[in-house]
Design brief:
The chain is 23% helix and 27% strand. It has 162 residues and is an alpha/beta fold. The termini are far apart.
């Protein structure tokens, strides 16, 4: 069943995908950043990938472009997953936001921004969601100094009760 779905996805995205391979039972597609929204819209509206599972990044500090941004989608009708992957440079780690297609992207993009510093164009709320305001750096980047001391933030008991 999943192989037939993967073939259908490959056919629909043949002109968009630079690479398409099955790894660990998931079809993984490499695309260009400019093709993200069109590709995701096709996955959702045409191919039935109605659930956005997550977005994350992979840091390759020795490579240019440095980051892979990775999205996972699921079809609740066909019970298969698809992974989209694209590369962004360290000097401008910006990709389009998916909140116009999947509302849940708002929070997942905040987490990816916290941990890796990826900027999601169109997401107007990239406040820290896992870290505190004032945290310096992005802790899942491979060059983040794990022994780094962070600035102390005064605890405000009145705000904790709200």
């Amino acid at each position: 069943m999943s192989e037939a779905v993967f073939e259908q996805v490959r056919e629909h995205l043949a002109g968009v995908s630079q690479e398409a391979l099955v790894a660990h039972g998931t079809l993984a597609l490499q695309i260009e950043p400019a093709q993200l929204l069109e590709t995701v819209r096709t996955l959702k509206d045409t191919l039935g990938f109605d659930m956005f599972l997550d977005v994350t990044a992979v840091d390759w500090p020795e490579r240019e472009p440095r980051f892979d941004v990775v999205w996972h989608f699921y079809s609740t009708r066909q019970h298969v997953r698809v992974r989209l992957k694209l590369r962004v440079p360290e000097r401008d780690p910006t990709v389009d936001s998916l909140i116009g297609l999947y509302g849940s992207a708002r929070y997942m993009e905040r987490e990816c921004h916290d941990m890796y510093g990826i900027v999601f164009r169109g997401n107007d709320d990239l406040r820290p969601i896992l870290l505190y305001e004032g945290f310096v750096g992005h802790p899942l980047r491979k060059d983040y100094p794990k022994q780094k001391e962070q600035p102390l933030v005064p605890y405000r008991a009145s705000e904790a009760r709200k």
